């Protein structure tokens, strides 16, 4: 039984060495007697026991490698600490096995040196604003250098760009000054707009007032013209009526009576409103006129009485 067990185990060991199953996500590099033989893709394969062996196994999926933080100097002599992530994939198992000792460590180191070189070409502000172009430059340089290694660098992403404490304080002061500057500019623009609006309002007010005064004068002129026209027409009609009345019998007497009444009325107004009594020269004639009127009145009064006595 012991011999059978040994034989069974030996046969199983031979079968284990004879058969090889490569998973879907891998490629295996086979060496025969220490020399490269082939690269086996995913699937079932047969090997020569004790002659062929799996020297390397490579994952064909995309890998993510962490790039440790490192100190860099920008173009304007600012010290920065930068880290990132590099994404790569094995394209050729033979070159990845024999082209370099450790392609992962080589890719990380190459990413660090390339990143340091590319940041040295940019200023501090450009490193923050041009991350995409910086990532593309690093990927292009790493991919060019890693081509003999049988890997493909797909992309590179910068995680953090951390300036020194002194630079951070300087940036904070600069940002505060910039914010203060923008606030002052905003206030100045607001005051400017307010003054413009006030001046435009005053200008519009002056225009409206002048337009109102202009329209008022026009209306007054039109009203005055219409008033003069109406008065002139009334005077014309009155003069025509007076001329017609004068042509009739007794018209002159009526005209004289009206003029006398107006004269007496005007003289009375002057005497009532004036503080100094002024007696015009015509008052003597006026007095004689009234005396004559009084005599006529007495004569008329006596005439009926004499007539009654004669009867």
UniProtKB/TrEMBL annotation:
Q: Which keywords does UniProt give here?
A: Membrane, Transmembrane, Transmembrane helix
Residues spanning the membrane: 6-24
For membrane topology, the record states: Single-pass membrane protein
Which superkingdom is the protein from? Answer: Bacteria
Q: Where is the Band domain?
A: 17-175
Q: What is the predominant subcellular site recorded for this chain?
A: membrane
Q: What SMART domains does the record tag this protein with?
A: PHB
Q: Where in the cell is it found?
A: Membrane
Q: Which family does it belong to?
A: Belongs to the band 7/mec-2 family.
The protein's name is: Paraslipin
Q: What is the lineage of its organism?
A: Bacteria, Pseudomonadati, Pseudomonadota, Gammaproteobacteria, Alteromonadales
């Amino acid at each position: 039984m012991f011999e059978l067990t040994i034989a069974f185990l030996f046969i199983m060991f031979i079968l284990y060495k004879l058969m090889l199953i490569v998973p879907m996500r891998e490629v295996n590099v086979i060496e025969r007697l220490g020399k490269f033989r082939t690269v086996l893709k995913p699937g079932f394969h047969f090997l020569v026991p004790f002659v062929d062996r799996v020297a390397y196994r490579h994952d064909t999926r995309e890998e993510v490698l962490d790039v440790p933080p490192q100190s860099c100097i920008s173009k304007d002599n600012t010290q920065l600490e930068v880290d990132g992530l590099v994404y790569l994939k094995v394209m050729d198992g033979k070159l990845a096995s024999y082209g370099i000792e450790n392609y992962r460590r080589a890719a990380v180191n190459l990413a660090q040196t390339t990143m340091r070189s590319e940041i040295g070409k940019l200023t501090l502000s450009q490193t923050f604003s041009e991350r995409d172009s910086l990532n593309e430059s690093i990927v292009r340089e790493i991919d060019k250098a890693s081509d003999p290694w049988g890997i493909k660098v797909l992309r590179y992403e910068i995680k953090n760009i951390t300036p020194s404490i002194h630079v951070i304080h300087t940036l904070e002061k600069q940002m505060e000054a910039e914010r203060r500057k923008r606030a002052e500019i905003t206030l100045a623009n607001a005051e400017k707009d307010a003054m413009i609006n006030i001046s435009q309002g005053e200008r519009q007010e002056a225009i409206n007032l002048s337009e109102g005064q202009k329209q008022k004068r026009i209306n007054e002129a039109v009203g005055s013209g219409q008033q003069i026209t109406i008065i002139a027409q009334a005077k014309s009609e009155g003069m025509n009526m007076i001329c017609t009345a004068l042509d009739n019998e007794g018209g002159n007497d009526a005209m004289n009576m009206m003029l006398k009444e107006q004269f007496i009325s005007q003289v009375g107004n002057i005497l009532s409103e004036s503080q100094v009594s002024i007696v015009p020269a015509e008052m003597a004639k006026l007095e004689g006129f009234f005396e004559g009127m009084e005599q006529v009145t007495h004569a008329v009064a006596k005439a009926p009485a004499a007539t009654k006595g004669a009867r």
